[in-house]
From TrEMBL:
GO terms for cellular component: plasma membrane. It comes from Stappia sediminis. This is Branched-chain amino acid ABC transporter permease. The keyword Oxidoreductase does not apply. It is found in: Cell membrane.
Length: 326
């Protein structure tokens, strides 16, 4: 009986990881606006929008960090680039999504391709430092854009339009648009990881020499993953600009890149569900502690360190059968 039960659990676990847990998380987000309406608390919707936007960025980072062992300390640069694409276009009278979205993808993709091609020639701490350098380069470039606010940032007087319609001005509609992007980013990354591409990416994390011995060059696969991650993070930046109706160089500081890494690690490496849970837990804890004391970072920092040191598998490790989910 014990063996039969173990076999059933072994079969059920991958199904739970691949289908049930993502469905539960997305359903919870989908049901939040009606709940907020019932509680007459509009802040919940606004806060959840922010959580989902950073969850998209965390999922994109999880693709290269959790599955490709690429510790990028410049990932927030793509959030800033995506935000500035929307802001600069709006400042010049271009509001349509069918222009801003392709421009965001193109700019972030090109930046990721160029910086990734150079960064991926290095390994370990050298990779971390060069991605940090590129991220800071983007940050200081943004602060020098005096025509678009410089250090003070840029206010956007409205949200991106959809074929001339201001449908995204409605908070609930915008909420579900962000949720759709989160679901799409999650699905895309999960599909990539479960494909031949993903197996090569994970194989490169374990042993590049073995892949090269069978005629596979992992550099190209890593670069493609790096570009895809950058483009997805750019989308999160474009959504953030619309949510806040404001763009700031602070979006792309190395501190924000560190926050994203903490989100991924807090949720559990090698797990997109963990990235979403990590982003949620990180921002909820930040919000709660900031209302308790103005010195909340003194509590927040040690707590995150303890989680990383002692919670094996992060938040996903606390869920039965949830240590790894692709």
């Amino acid at each position: 009986m014990t063996a039969v039960a173990s076999d059933k659990q072994a079969v059920a676990t991958p199904i739970f990881r691949a289908r049930v847990l993502p469905a539960i998380i997305l359903a919870a987000f989908a049901l939040l606006p009606p709940l907020a309406m019932a509680l007459d608390d509009s802040f919940l919707v606004f806060f959840a929008i922010r959580v989902m936007i950073f969850a998209i960025a965390a999922v994109s980072l999880a693709l290269i960090l959790g599955f490709g062992a690429m510790v990028s300390f410049g990932h927030a640069a793509y959030i800033g680039l995506g935000a500035y694409c929307v802001g600069i276009l709006a400042e010049n009278g271009i509001w349509e999504f069918y222009i801003s979205l392709p421009v965001t993808l193109l700019v972030c993709g090109l930046f990721a391709a160029v910086t990734g091609a150079i960064s991926l020639k290095t390994r370990g701490v050298y990779f971390i430092m060069i991605t940090l350098a590129f991220g800071q380069m983007a940050f200081f470039t943004a602060t020098s854009l005096s025509a678009y606010g410089g250090d003070d940032g840029l206010t956007i007087w409205g949200r991106t339009e959809v074929f001339g319609s201001s449908v995204l001005s409605d908070r609930t509609t915008f909420y579900y648009v962000v949720l759709a992007f989160l679901a799409g980013a999650w699905w895309l990354c999960a599909t990539l990881v479960n494909s031949r591409f993903g197996r090569v990416l994970q194989g490169a994390r374990q042993s590049e020499m073995r892949l090269q011995a069978i005629g596979i060059e992992p550099y190209t696969y890593r670069l493609v993953a790096f570009v895809i991650a950058g483009m997805l993070a750019g989308i999160s930046g474009a959504l953030l600009a619309n949510a806040a109706e404001f763009v700031s160089p602070a979006y792309m500081t190395w501190h924000r890149s560190g926050d994203l890494i903490f989100m991924v690690v807090l949720g559990g490496l090698g797990s997109f569900a963990g990235a979403v849970l990590g982003a949620t837990g990180y921002l909820v804890l930040e919000e709660v502690l900031s209302h308790v004391t103005e010195h909340w970072r003194l509590i927040f920092g040690p707590f995150l360190i303890l989680v990383v040191l002692f919670a094996r598998g992060g938040l996903m490790g606390l869920i039965p059968g949830g240590k790894r989910h692709e």
